[in-house]
Amino acid sequence: MSALTRFLGDTPLRVLLKLLVVSFLVGLVMNAFGWSPADVLYGIRNFFVDLWNLGFRAIDRFLGYILLGAAIVIPAFLLLRIANYRK
């Protein structure tokens, strides 16, 4: 068995035939959906951008909740501390 055959997993001619058949089927499906290779790449890029933004949006919402709660809790805490300081 040659190094090329070991690398490809089969003889070069059979690998070429398999790749042609799979490429034809994938091209047929992509044409049926009206996709192009650029659409696939943009879709992958947009997926990761949306995932990135979702992470920071979640942190932003979390910090927003903390600040909203702190607007009530901190003044109440200070008032309670001042009220108990006199005792």
TrEMBL record:
Claim: Transmembrane is one of the keywords in the record: yes
Domain DUF6460: residue ranges: 51-86
Organism encoding this protein: Mesorhizobium robiniae
Protein name: DUF6460 domain-containing protein
InterPro entries in the record: DUF6460
Keyword vocabulary terms for this entry: Membrane, Transmembrane, Transmembrane helix
Transmembrane segments: 15-35, 62-83
